[in-house]
Amino acid sequence: MEIAADVAVIGGGMAGLVAGTVASQAGLSVVVLSRGHGATADCSGAIDVIGYLPLATTPTVSAIEGLHLLAALHVLHPYSILGLERESLVVDGDVVVKRVQETIEWFLSTVAESELRHVGSLDSTIMACSPLGTLKPTALLQQTMWSDSLMDEDNVVMFAGIRGYPDFHSGMAAKTFLEERQALREGPRRVINCTVDLSNLLPVSNLSAIELARLFDTEEGLRHLAESLQSHVEGTGASHVVLPPVLGLEHAATARSELESRLGAEVIETISFPPSIPGTRLQAALEAALERAGGRLLKGHEVVGTETSKDRVTGIKARGPRRSVSVTAKSYVLATGKFVGGGLAGDERGLRETVFGLQVFDGDRMSVTETRPQKLTDLTWVTERGHRLYTCGIGVDEHLRPVGLDGRVYAANLFGAGAVLAGYNYITEKSGLGVAIATGHAAAIEAVNFATEAKS
Ligand SMILES: Cc1cc2nc3c(=O)[nH]c(=O)nc-3n(C[C@H](O)[C@H](O)[C@H](O)COP(=O)(O)OP(=O)(O)OC[C@H]3O[C@@H](n4cnc5c(N)ncnc54)[C@H](O)[C@@H]3O)c2cc1C
What confidence score (pLDDT) does residue 229 get? Predict the structure, then answer.
């Protein structure tokens, strides 16, 4: 099959779907090719923008503060590249903050139209509760994961597990949560736990998050959960109930409101470990946004070949479940993720970018293409900024065009976005989805400008 489009996007995670949606909203024809789910569908449900600066041990007060400091200290960070002035090589922090703010606002309103609402902003870092009972800094959370009043002193906070669901130990989470609060002399003084029994509806061992989410999308499942929780809430006077993140794939916000009105207590979900129901909700909301904007998503299509001529990418070939597809476009966005997504791979030949064979750099723009996986246990790869492996990726110029070792642009119509980019460590910084949104949006604007000029 042959497809001609204005913009072709390789990768269907956060960066690729943001890029595809923005380009479609600009009125261009867009095709997004996705091999399968990447890191986005595995994410915890928190949208991190910048939780920690490199080397810092305390969280940023706000993402805005973090972005300003990054712009001043780390020119090669993907956020900084959004405000990089080519001539002076100076990063304008105000430009970085403005661009990230605008893209986050765009993201929030776009996924809200897919019925996925978030709380939080770039003005202050908020703390998300993990299934272990620990807190992690982030910028935005799915609405069902946040309560303004969780940390009030007089609360009785109850962690509630589900019998047979092995991924959430309510007793351990409650203990950790309480011990951390006591150590920091903050938060509720009474933290308890319970386990509810849904054995009349589901087996009592090895329940999965997806089984529970599907159950709580039904009226019957939700009613049983409420009834099972009721006696625990009444018996303890719990003001807040903390559940694992399984309150449905489709109607989590409604499920939460119904539970709250039946129980007379606030209900929140924790953030998630993979496999992630909140990540699945996010992935579905992004795919729906692309569809609404008129973009075409080819799932299960892996790009296995590329064609270039002079300084342009002229076509890509993908292998699909039933047939191969040749795509020609005026501009291309590479948003294939890092190791989880499949955009980078390592073997005995070294570290590679998997689609175009682009140069791979570390966070300091040192070449790492010769690095073999066995070298990665070398202690020199573990720096105070975390493991260098996580900062690896492709290097881009100020228009997000991939560059080689000599700084030359690989192709004038190819733009990189998301986790495939070098220069940041989302694990230590807590910046993963924020970078994917901001660079996906920026790459789309570059791709749209290029395609529009090529058309005229
Ligand atoms: C377990 C886990 C939890 C995380 N939790 C958080 C969190 O709570 N908050 C946060 O902000 N960040 C989190 N992150 C980081 C964040 O998820 C990623 O940084 C972000 O999702 C990257 O988005 P992306 O679109 O660049 O890549 P991905 O989401 O990985 O998407 C890459 C896409 O490219 C496709 N692809 C790859 N190669 C090809 C090919 N040849 N042809 C076609 N398609 C291809 C993949 O199939 C996939 O669709 C987490 C990451 C992991 C792994």
Answer: 97
Q: What is the pLDDT of residue 362?
A: 87
Is residue 242 domain-shared with residue 304, that is, in the same domain?
no
What SS3 state is found at 38? coil
| Residue 307 structure tokens | 């064609």
Q: Per the structure block, which two tokens stand in for 13?
A: 């995670």
If pLDDT is split at 50, 70 and 90, which confidence band does 180 have? Answer: very high
Q: Which residues line ligand 1 (CB under 6 A)?
A: 10-16, 33-36, 38-40, 42-44, 46-48, 274, 302-303, 335-337, 340-343, 354-355, 418-419, 426, 432-433, 436
Q: Which of 9, 32, 44 to mutate to test the pocket of ligand 1 (most atoms within 8 A of CB)?
A: 44
Domain that holds residue 210: 131-270
150 CA distance to ligand 1 centroid (A)? Answer: 30
- CATH number of the structural domain spanning residue 175: 3.40.50
**pLDDT confidence of 383, banded at 50, 70, 90?**
confident
Residue with CA at minimum distance from ligand 1 atom 48: 38
* CATH number of the domain to which 39 belongs: 3.50.50.60
Residues 341-359 have a mean pLDDT of 93
Domain assignment present for 120: no
DSSP 8-class letter at 249: S
Domain count along the chain = 2
Q: Please say whether the dihedral angle defined by the alpha carbons of residues 362, 386, 425 and 101, taken in this order, is positive or negative.
A: negative
Q: Give the pLDDT confidence of 92-122 residue by residue, as tens digits.
A: 999 999 999 999 999 999 999 999 999 999 9
Among candidates 426, 453, 448, which has minimal Cα distance to 136? 426
Residue ID of nearest Cα to ligand 1 atom 31: 13
Contact 359, 397 (CB under 8 A): no
* CA 422 – CA 367 distance, rounded (Å): 11
ipTM above 0.95, yes or no: yes
Residue 210: which H helix or E strand, with range? helix 209-216
Q: Is residue 125 part of a domain?
A: no
